[in-house]
């Protein structure tokens, strides 16, 4: 099948810049690709790279789009190299129509620092029961003190709430142990700490593997499994706890499907602050492939001005 190919770059400013251990993120840039069939039907897909996370850059994606002829076919799309994972996702999802995904449980992302506490209240009231809080942004004693209040507010007082922490690879080994001890104690008191995400940088896989065997609190890999090749490597090296999957940057959705069907891995699907085009395709994959006891990290769909 031949398609008429066009693409449109976009740029959106966050209402509240996103703060992580990697720094402050103010503008989300990406590309919407359109594939028009001979009968006039148009399929859309989204390319939303995060270079600091291990995907290609926006420039590389733009260069790839610009290098293509006006007419392309699915054979070309299925042969996009693994060095362009966000392009693989954008083009492949534009080939197929996505039905409305069934309803999923969503996790809400709290702002870093102490504003998390106030932010959690209206989110709880609007129905969120899983919250993710970024750590390794401020000094650890400050964050431990805020965490204590956060747990009192949202998890302990109100039954059935869960909290996940995301360090974005920003902890030292000692800090990671301190967080894990803290979480283990809370868990022993009935607090639902779902997991700590990417405590150490991806260069420290072996240490994370050891930590995952030494504490009750679970660990999730995120930066370490940014692409499908990374995920396969971590799985083959013995990772059996949680894998965060960011569909828009992991690469080919058909290869992801294949991997998840062959290996019963524990997954958490997560957004990269894409538009509704990528979001719909990503949620479809999440509903097919995620374990339904884990909320998807696609909460609050109004990030942008
Ligand atoms: O996963 C979520 O709940 C929200 C999305 C999120 O945290 C995120 C979004 C963009 C880039 C990196 C990350 C991250 O998980 O580190
Ligand atoms: Mg993360």
Unreliable spans:
none
Task: Work out the radius of gyration.
Answer: 20 Å
CATH architecture of the largest domain: Alpha-Beta Barrel
> What share of residues are in beta strands?
15-25%
Task: Count every helix, treating DSSP H or I runs of 4 or more residues as helices.
Answer: 11
What is the rounded distance between the termini? Answer: 38 Å
Tally the beta strands. 11
The small-molecule ligands in this entry are: 2-succinylbenzoate, magnesium ion
Number of domains: 2
Which overall shape is indicated by the principal axes computed on the Cα atoms? globular
Q: What is the CATH C-level name of the largest domain? A: Alpha Beta
Q: What is the string of SSEs from the N terminus onward? A: EEEHEHHEHEHEHEHEHEHHEH
CATH topology of the largest domain: TIM Barrel
- Read across the widest sheet, the strand sequence of neighbours is 5-6-7-8-9-10-11
CATH superfamily of the largest domain: Enolase-like C-terminal domain
The percent range for helix content is 25-40%
Task: Please give the largest β-sheet.
Answer: 7 strands, parallel
Function: Converts 2-succinyl-6-hydroxy-2,4-cyclohexadiene-1-carboxylate (SHCHC) to 2-succinylbenzoate (OSB).
Catalytic activity: (1R,6R)-6-hydroxy-2-succinyl-cyclohexa-2,4-diene-1-carboxylate = 2-succinylbenzoate + H2O
EC number: 4.2.1.113
Protein name: o-succinylbenzoate synthase
